Amino acid sequence: DGKGLEQRVMIPMLDILNHANDAAPTVSYDATATSTTGNKVAVTLAKDVKEGQELSSFYGNKPNWQMLASYGFVSTNPECQETTLKDSLDASDALYDRKAQLLTAAGLNPEGQLFDIRATAEPSELLWGFQRICAMSSEQELESAEQALDGKVSDDNERQAMARLQSVIDKRQKFINESKKNAIQAGERGQETLVRRSVVGVVSDLFDSEAAAVDSLEDRLKRRLEAI
Questions:
Q1: Residues 105, 107, 113, 118, Cα dihedral to 10°
Q2: Which of 106, 127, 133, 140 is most buried by its number of CB atoms within 10 A?
Q3: SS3 track for 52-106
Q4: Are the CB atoms for 202 and 187 separated by under 8 Å?
Q5: For residue 187, which of 202, 176, 198 has the smallest C-alpha distance?
Q6: How many CA atoms lie within 13 A of 7 on its CB side?
């Protein structure tokens, strides 16, 4: 009977509206049309506009890599500034097997766990828990592993965990900076097999967006250290 199903439609002209961070028009679709009334689409603007002023839409707070892939631009909206950290348990760790077991039991990948980091949001508590478990140095400490996933287990462990995360942040910052530099240089040299000159600017903007997300995480880390 169609109940509970999402109805998707193509609405000519509506998709030509450009994105703006402060635009939030409401689009409603009347799916109860009859043969006489036809389907109806209503667009309600979030604010008054002057005659001749461009009407804009809001494409959402998608991560900027998705904004670039879907729409071809990078948003200046801080909500869209996102990066991904990849972290792994040190393979030479004397307690590797036990730590790997604990992390796996918590749904974390000891060989390459990914954490989404957004500039305007607190990261998953599992990011901090991952660091705490990896920083533990004895079987006795590991007895507090389950607790570590939810919060601090000791001042010493917290400092070591934060130091470990700082090294992960440093690596990500270095990768972003070098990738941006290489993209710009490739564009200047006309190496279009690496990056087209016409898109160097927007690719650079994407790296800046990711860097902002990493900087935000570093600020949060520093505040946690100050609170110990």
A1: -140
A2: 133
A3: CCCCEECCCCCCHHHHHHHHCCCCCCHHHCEEEEEECCCCCCCCHHHHHHHHHHC
A4: no
A5: 198
A6: 11
* Residue from 44, 40, 75 nearest 59 by CA: 75
pLDDT of 149 over the 80 cut: yes
Q: How far is the C-alpha of 116 from the C-alpha of 124, rounded, in Å?
A: 8
Burial of 142 (0-12, 13-18, 19+ CB in 10 A): middle
**Going along the chain, which residue ranges are E strands?**
18-19, 26-30, 40-44, 56-57, 82-87, 113-118
Residue 170 · residue 141 · CB < 8 Å: no
Residue 5: per-residue pLDDT? 66
Q: Model's pTM, two decimal places?
A: 0.83
* CB distance 46 to 23 below 8 Å: yes
Res 15: pLDDT = 78
Place of tokens 């730590």: 99
Cα Rg of the chain (Å, integer): 24
Q: How many CB atoms lie within 10 A of CB 163?
A: 13
Residue 82 has pLDDT above 80, yes or no: yes
Report the 10 Å Cβ neighbour count for 136. Answer: 24
Number of Cβ atoms within 10 Å of the Cβ of 124: 12
The three-state secondary structure class of 49 is coil
